[in-house]
Design goal:
With 417 residues, the chain is α/β, with parallel strands linked by helices. It has 11 helices and 14 strands. The protein is elongated, with a radius of gyration of 24 Å. Bound molecules: zinc ion.
Length: 417
């Protein structure tokens, strides 16, 4: 009925407006005046956590904080042994950040909990606000979410920030007790799953004119350092046919990386760093050093692509009479999202009147750590120009509303299963 549609549209707009207002409120808390920088366990993180806790309480949630500063807003289940559905994201940021990366997911969770307040659910609900997703301040990796999966590494406590403060000291300063980190891990048998809403940080949804998309997997990644050794020489006197130009060889290799990355399904391959020695206008390049960053949602696709690129670079080197060496320093498996939760998000989007598509995530998220604990899935929200980690990061209120409604409907779908 037309009347219902109007009411529905107003509700969507209202949810979106509320989400935007809450995100703007959290964005006031920064460590650097004039721009948003909110590092783990900083004064701005503390203030932002207080503001988030107040929002959680307003949504009827009971709020606690764990030993790593993760904020937990809980709605109890119908019985003490009911499982718990987790919904979360992070409230720390990179330096000079946008305001949506992280807080969008936390705010969507809180608004979903609020919208579901009067409804019976067969499980407990927890909204999580993690503090250490961006891994900017300490040499950790998703410390706060990894702890829920029992993967917190004790040696992280001795890691220091740029001022020499250890994580242990920073936790104590934040009011947390590092001795209680052992209490954080959850029981997988009592955890129903984990859902995370996040800005896409890429241009695909915008290009397809969709507000939301459902993540199928978080890409695995291989990183390598490569060195090409040729022979320096006078740029004026050594004939073209008698050169071993390391940079010219590298140029062919980079073109090969781009070609192979384009051909492989859902994969991306990037040379982000390339330096030339000696780096003089009138000297034939003797050596280059470059990096490889190769990602794909399927480990088999990524392994084959790495092999194709490395063997291709060797062939280029051989043909050109230069030496090629590569050293892999990272090999991270892809994280598959859970089929049931993916289907619940898709059904939720359909019930919310949103078209979706499935897409892989090129960036890492708390869901990588949470997937080691329980079935996990992510909902991506269109962001302007695919821009993130940048003050220009932007989304619309309508899309934020669509994300909250999708999340609410997905929880309802899971409740009826
Ligand atoms: Zn993020």
């Amino acid at each position: 009925m037309a009347g219902d549609a109007t009411v529905e549209d107003a509700a969507v707009q209202d949810l979106g407006a509320r989400a935007m207002a809450m995100i703007a409120d959290l964005a006031r808390h920064t460590d650097e005046p004039g721009r948003l920088t909110r590092l783990y366990l900083s004064p701005a993180h503390a203030a932002c956590a207080d503001a988030t806790a107040a929002m959680m309480r307003d949504a009827g949630l009971g709020v606690t904080r764990d030993a790593l500063g993760t904020l937990v807003g809980r709605r109890e289940g119908p019985t003490p042994d009911a499982k718990t559905l987790l919904i979360g994201s992070h409230i720390d940021s990179v330096v000079n950040a946008g305001i949506y990366d992280g807080p969008l997911g936390v705010v969507c969770g809180i608004l979903a909990a609020d919208a579901l307040r009067g409804e019976d659910l067969p499980f407990a609900l927890e909204i999580l606000a993690f503090g250490d997703e961006e891994n900017v301040r300490f040499p950790t990796s998703l410390a706060s979410s990894s702890a829920l999966a029992g993967d917190f590494r004790p040696e992280w406590l001795d890691g220091t920030d740029a001022d020499g403060v250890t994580l242990r000291e920073a936790l104590v300063g934040f009011g947390c007790d590092p001795e209680r980190i052992g209490d954080i891990p959850r029981d997988p048998a009592r955890t129903l799953g984990y859902l995370e809403v996040h800005i896409e940080q890429g241009p695909v949804l915008e290009a397809r004119d969709l507000a939301v998309g459902v993540v199928t997997a978080i890409n695995g990644a291989t990183r390598a350092r490569c060195i090409v050794d040729g022979m320096a020489g006078h740029a004026g006197t050594v004939p073209m046919g008698m050169r071993a130009d390391a940079l010219a060889a590298t140029a062919e290799m980079i073109a090969l990386v781009e070609r192979a990355g384009t051909a492989a399904r859902d994969a991306v391959a990037t040379v982000g760093v390339c330096t030339v020695e000696p780096g003089a206008l009138n000297v034939i390049p003797a050596r280059t050093r470059f990096t490889l960053d190769i990602r794909a949602p399927e480990d088999g696709v990524r392994a084959a692509l790495v092999e194709e690129i490395v063997s291709g670079c060797r062939a280029v080197a051989e043909r050109r009479g230069v030496a090629f060496a590569e050293e892999r320093f990272m090999d991270q498996a892809a994280t598959a999202m859970d089929d049931t939760l993916v289907a619940a998000l898709e059904a939720g989007a359909a019930r919310a009147g949103e078209r979706t598509l499935r897409l892989p995530s090129g960036a890492g998220h708390d869901a990588v750590a949470m997937a080691r604990l329980c079935p996990s899935a992510m909902l991506f929200v269109r962001c302007e120009g695919g821009i993130s980690h940048n003050p220009a990061e932007n989304i619309t209120a309508a899309d934020a509303g669509a994300a909250v409604r999708t999340l609410v409907e997905a929880v309802r779908v899971l409740a009826r299963r």
